[in-house]
Structures are given as structure tokens and as C-alpha cells.
Amino acid sequence: MTSALWPLQRAVYAKLTGHQPLMALVSGVYDEVPENVAHPYVSIGSITEDVDDAHNARGLEAMVVLHVWSKYRGYREASEILTVLDAVLDRKPLDVDGFTDVSIAHRQHNAMRDPDPDIRHINVSYRVWLTKAEE
By three-state DSSP, how is residue 97 classified? Predict the structure, then answer.
């Protein structure tokens, strides 16, 4: 079975960075966050995958974790960004190279305080189901 890790990351990144309302709210979407980046921003966290074959097809179930980082006092700004992330990803079409029948759904999120008292952080998980395209 071919991994979807890289094609899925590329698809999520392209979907997020191609959405103007999101990009108007954040300084960027990052895999590797640059030093001294301006807040707020979104980073792509871990992606895990499990085999999820059907009788006649190879498949994967993946979990994509995104992180929203903000210096706004309280969670208002980060929560508004989370709402836009959902508008972009939750139950929306997602083109992942080498895979068909891709569906994505918001699974859970967690708002937390960072050790730095000025930073607010929300991590959000999306569950993704993918079928390997026939070769």
C-alpha cells in the first residue's frame, strides 16, 4: 500500500493556502514554521494513517492535525480561524494525488494555553478516508 502522507499534506496545504478568507486572517500556513513568524498562523502537525481496505479496494484512514497559533488575549481570534478551517475542510472535496473517494471530517479540537502566557493554541484533528486509485 502506498502511503498518503505526502500527497495528503500537499492537498491540505494547497486547499488552505488557496482560500483567500483564511489567508486574510493568518500570516501563513506552515509545515516548518520560520523563526519570528507573525501571529496568527496555522501549522500542519502530525499525519497518521491506518490501513482501511474494503473487499475490492485498498484504502487508508488518516488523521491530520492542524495547529492555530494566536497572540490575541483569549481564544476569540483562534476560534474564528478554526471556524474558517472548518469551512475550508470539513466535509469538503479534497483532491489527493493517487487516491479517489477522499472524504474529510472534523473530528475534534482542543484549545489550550501555551507555556508562553501570551500565546493561545488550538489544535484540530480531521479524519480522512481515502481509496487508492487503481493502477
Answer: coil
Closest among 124, 114, 135, 91 to 1, alpha carbons compared = 135
The sign of the torsion formed by the CA atoms of 118, 87, 23, 129 equals positive
Residue 66 CA: distances (Å) to CA of 81, 90, 119, 124: 11, 13, 16, 5
Q: What's the CA angle centered on 88, arms 62 and 39, to 5 degrees?
A: 95
Q: Which domain holds residue 106?
A: 5-132
**pTM score:** 0.93
The count of domains in the chain is: 1
The CATH number covering residue 13 comes to: 3.30.2000.30
Tens-digit pLDDT profile for the chain (135 aa)? Answer: 578 999 999 999 999 999 999 999 999 999 999 999 999 999 999 999 998 888 778 888 999 999 999 999 999 999 999 999 999 999 999 999 999 989 999 999 999 988 999 999 999 999 999 998 776
